[in-house]
Amino acid sequence: MTQFLRETWELWYWALFRPSLLQQRMNAWAPQAEKDGKRADTAYNDILLFRTNARFLSQFALLTLLLCTPLIIPVATTGEVRDWLFVLSALLTAYGVSVWFLPLGVHTPLLFAPVYVFQRVILRLSLDKASAILPPLPQLALGIGSYTLGLVLTSLFGYWLWQRQQLWAGRIVLVAGSVISVAGGSWLATQSWVLAAWLSGLSGFFLFLTIGDEPRNNDPERAVGGAVGGAVGVSLLPLLPLLLAAWLVGFCFAPLRWRWTGLLVAGIFIVLTFEQQGWWALVAGVAALVGYYRFLPFYPLSALLCLRQNIRLPRTALPLLRRLPPFGDEILWLPLLGHSRILAAAFREDANTTLATLQQMRALPYPGYRRAERRALPQIVADQLAQAQHIESLIATSQANHPLLPPLVPAFYQFDQAGQRQDLAAAPGKTDEIATVLPRFLALAEDVGRACEMDNPAMAELGMERCLDNLRTLQGQLPGFGLRAKHIERWKPAFAQWEVVLQHAIECQRTLSQGELLNPFQTGNPLRPERKELFKGRTQFVGDVLRYIYDASRPTLVLHGPRRCGKSSFLLNLPHLLPSDVLPVYYSLQAPAATASPGDFCYGMVRALGRDLRGQGVVAPEAQRASFQHNPYGTLEDWLDAVKPRLGTRSVLLCFDEFEKLGEAIAHGRVSMAVFDQLRDLIQHSNLSFLFCGVQTLSELGPNWSSYFISVQPMEMTYLEPDAARELLTNPDLAFDLRYAEGIVEQVVTITRCQPYLLQLIGEHMVRQANRNQTRLLTQPLLDAALDAALTAGEPYFTNLWSEYTGTTPDEVRAGQSLLHAVAHGQAPPPTDTPGARAALRRLVRYHVIEQAGSSHRCEVPFVARWVRERAVIEEV
Amino acid sequence: MKHISSNPFIVDHPVPPEYFHGRRDQFLSIKDRIGGIASQCISIVGFRRSGKSSLLRYVQERIGEFCPPEQQPLVITLILSDRRFHTPEGITEGLRQGIEQAIGSPPWRREDNSDPWTVDDGLQALRDCGRRLIVLIDEFDEIGARLAAFEGWGGDWREKAGVQGYFALVLTTLHPIDAIYQELGLTSPFGNIFTTIELGALTTGEWQFLVRDGFTGSGVDLREADLVLLDELAGGLPFYVQLAAQLLWRHGDHPRTCAEFTLQAEPFFAKLWRDLSEQERHALRHAAGLPRLAAPVANIRERLQRHGILRSDGRLFSSALAEWLKDGQKA
Q: Which residues of chain A make contact with B38, given a CB cutoff of 8 A?
């Protein structure tokens, strides 16, 4: 019972204030047949007449009876028996109008009440006249009953035909059936053919005009037509009750969605009451409009709430929003000032709840919501964009599964089958704020997403920097898009927040980049003393050098070996390898200036001595270049004599690197053979020790060298000691923290054969691969990638080996390359029966490119063999 | 297509850093070499229009991405096609002026350009005061036309860069440095102080990002079919990607873009052809499907693939190039 009464209350409340909920109940209690997967809304005539729901009908009856109470009470207390006919009429009229428009119909008895109260006498006179005109009651009842029965049967049959799409047949049945029903009923009631003919003709004519193809729900014209009958009686009321009645009628019509309803109702009231009220009829029309647009009593209250809260800047907008439409009263014909601002503020407080409210507002057909939604939406979207706290949420704004933006602006989240966003163009000549700004933000978010997907953090960083630039550009472009300043202002927080997020993300990427392992390996350049931690091994050579220096005969040392085996590095690091009583001096003859002339040679030597002695605590006298041009060797000797006392008991080891250049200079006439005399004299009569360093031995350079320097001790430097190679790979630097997976170090040691340059080269690329993959553990795949990259990076070394160590003449080179190619591929070598081939073979063996392996040869360094196999191209004739 | 902005794609000059895309591996290599504990030399090898000059420009203008501030990098760019740098003295003067502009005082006097010891002292002083000098040399191949004038220069700079550590060199060349000297029967004086990086095609992600960035930034739609067309025409090589994208942006329809691309790319195809060795040309002819050709040497094909001239599946990088070869002129 409680539920029944509650539902009865809801019937009244929803009919007037929450028509959408009433519609939902009607759809649930008397659902329409499904058609094409959809069900049409249940109309009032469906649930009250054609497919009645007993529960609904009984609640309707109770409600109507309750609303008839203002009429029943005066009739019961002060009326006559025949006055109960008015009650019956009111109830029947309520039902009849409700079949077309329930909100009005259920209140019809309320309109009867004031009419009865104020115009009782006129009503009774009308009833008397009608009684006189009308036939006796039984006859009248028979006629009306027949007419009603005929109409019911006609309606049922016509409706059945309409349901089967027999539109014209239904129309004809309705017209004909109604005419016959009217004719038959009229005749039975009045026994007058003339009246029957008139009534049937008129009704048939109007029916034919007004009956459309299908019954329309809540047909406004019919509902309004129903109001005409009520208005006829209402027009007799005094002014105040008339105004109240007009307001009530307008109020009841408000749920009707046809936008001209209000004006029509007002017009009808004016027309019908003008005769009685004169110009006061206009006030009745205004009252109808006030009721229709719900201007009284609730709108001023809502407007006042909005205005007051907007002035005071709401602290909590959500509770206020719940006190405004569509809460309480769904119907909002007139927009509320400040509604959009409250909506936007509520969204900031509780987005999900407010989103539901917004969607409800969108579903309602009343124009009062459109303005609020239209004004609130850009602010809401801008606020949502400004909510992006980190890069993931920024990217998420462009995705269809974002929790808020797609429901807010679904038009901008339409994707085709390929996953491409369907862009919307703003209407021509019209600046739509959201359509102008949002797609650009979404495109930026997509670009950021793509940037973040980059494998390499530096690449990702660059991509995000580009996005940041584009973001700033977009902000600068906004005025050019036709947006007003106050509109641009609301997007500023979004721009600011995105800039912060992007900058933070860029910094994180940069940190990843800066967190890279600093590459300690040095490929190509000799290791200077500042990189002494990178210099490993060669302890045997240090011992040999010391032994020869301490040897009373002080032989001339010749350090020779293939290129890039660490000879120059060894010489440059001697200061920290030798004891302090030996002062090594490094003099490179690579620079042309050193061998441009005897004076330059001597001056260069003095510069080198002065520099390196100064670095080891011995202050050498200054030397002027000009003095060496005139008398180079004499000036050199004088200078050495001046330095000697400052050396004390220490001996000097003068190391000439690239000493072959001296021979080239002699061959080109820049320097004479006198330089050899000078050097030999220095060896014999000074406490200088000499070390010549180069690719070749003195004997290979020619007789001049070997005849001038008799006591020569050659030292060949090739591969690093295996322990030193492992140490180099695992501990090249104090801060080095790259770890190697098991077997990696041994693989590198094996394939390089501890060749120093290749160790450095591969080490450099292993670190680079580790950085590229943001790891501190070097695994096999990374080693493979490093080796592949090293083959490219070491191109100068490998091609130099391929062209220089295969021969000295074109024939030798071709023969040597063919031989090396075959050896690298493990194939049978070409015949070496030509002088060129034999010379090439000797050269390849001499410079440790290939070695004897049983009856055949193999590449000394496996990695060199790999380069030959994968990269070498034999030069064509 | 409606365009409200200028064409975002650049083909006429080296790409400014803000529009540079891709090459992250090369960036890492360069950073390791010039921004490492000790500065080292690196050569950048790539065929014409592979983006070498753009890469150098990026290094010059964004040196902070390669060298941390504490290294105090000082970058000087020399373009050897510039007449001022056709002699060693010219290069030395270019170096001197560049240093002077950067630090406000000349490292040596102009008249001392021919005095190697004075120049040596100046560079040593710069090194010893903590400055890291990085010399970018573009179009290094130009030296091959006047090697006689540069006799001894290579060894001198090798000494300065390799042994003394006065500066790091970053060179761009069409061919490896050794090949430049070998062409004239000489051995490179630089020894092995350089490591090499090769410029090939951009990765798919990189060039598509480049294209999307340009189209999106100018408010023009880009469809998947457009990307397919650009891949077919340009194969990821940056200049050709820019050219194809520029034409597509301008014209909008595919047939017209293809026709214009073929027309505008032809001179560059011709220059590329001139730079190739006979073995490389043979490989391209074979890839174009010209009949009765033996398979190319595997190493040659792989080198062309690394440079992006051939795709990983052996096809030419551009269908337009294939057509250009097939017209019979290059058989």
A: 522, 525, 528, 530-531
Shortest Cα–Cα distance, B263 to chain A (Å): 32
Give, rounded to a whole angstrom, the gap between the first and last alpha carbons of chain B. 40
Pick from A758, A757, A762: nearest CA to A738: A762
Q: Residue A138 has what pLDDT?
A: 65
Question: Among A594, A650, A649, which residue's Cα sits nearest to residue A625?
Answer: A594
CA neighbours closer than 13 Å in the CB half-sphere of residue A761: 32
- DSSP-derived secondary structure for A567-626: HHHHHHTHHHHS-TTEEEEEEE--SGGGGSSHHHHHHHHHHHHHHHHHHTT-PPPP--HH
Provide the CATH number for the domain formed by A538-719 in this structure. Answer: 3.40.50.300
How far apart CA A14 and CA A8 sit, in angstroms, is 10
Q: Is the dihedral of CA A754, A758, A764, A770 positive or negative?
A: negative
Under 8 Å between Cβ of A267 and A308: no
Q: Are A245 and A264 spatial neighbours (Cβ–Cβ below 8 Å)?
A: no
Going by pLDDT thresholds of 50, 70 and 90, the confidence category of residue A309 is low
ipTM (interface pTM): 0.90
Question: Residue A45: is its pLDDT beyond 60?
Answer: yes
The alpha-carbon gap from B159 to the nearest alpha carbon of chain A, in Å, equals 6
Nearest chain A alpha carbon to B38: A522
Pull the structure tokens for residue A108. Answer: 């019809």
Q: What is the pLDDT of residues A466-502, one digit of tens each?
A: 889 889 988 888 888 888 888 889 999 999 999 999 9
Answer yes or no: is pLDDT of A264 > 90. no
Within 8 A of B205 by CB-CB distance, chain A residues are 450, 453-454
Task: With H, G, I as helix, E, B as strand and everything else as coil, classify residue B61.
Answer: helix
Whose tokens are 């109770």? That residue is A62
Reported as a single tens digit per residue, the pLDDT across A596-654 is 899 999 999 999 999 999 888 888 898 888 899 888 999 999 999 999 899 888 889 99
Cβ–Cβ gap A592/B155 under 8 Å: yes
Residue of A469, A459, A467, A417 whose CA lies nearest to A442: A467
| Average pLDDT along chain A | 84
- Distance, in Å, from the CA atom of A869 to the CA atom of A401, rounded to the nearest integer, reads 53
How many angstroms from the chain centroid is the CA of residue A620?
Answer: 67
pLDDT digits (tens, 9 = 90+) for A194-235: 777 766 676 666 565 555 544 444 445 454 544 444 444 565
The pLDDT assigned to A683 comes to 82
Looking at the predicted structure, is the pLDDT value of residue B279 above 50? yes
User: Nearest-CA neighbor of B252 among B282, B214, B223?
Assistant: B223
Give the domain ranges of chain A: 2-135+191-236, 297-368, 386-515, 538-719, 723-793, 796-870
Residue pair B309/B288 in contact (Cβ under 8 Å)? The answer is no
Number of H helices, E strands in chain A: 44, 11
Strands (E), chain B: 41-45, 73-79, 132-138, 167-173, 194-198
Domains and CATH numbers, chain B: 24-198 (3.40.50.300), 204-326 (no CATH)
pLDDT at B329: 53
Q: Is B156 within 8 Å of A733 when comparing Cβ atoms? A: no
The whole-angstrom separation of Cα A397 and Cα A407 is 12
Mean pLDDT of chain B: 90
* Min distance A778 CA to chain B CA atoms (Å): 17
pLDDT-wise least confident of A121-135, A319-333, B209-223, B311-325: A121-135
* pLDDT tens digits for range A501-546: 999 888 877 766 556 788 899 998 999 988 888 999 999 999 999 9
Residues of B with CB below 8 A from A604's CB? 117
Closest residue in A to B204 (Cα–Cα): A454
CATH code that applies to domain A796-870: 1.10.10
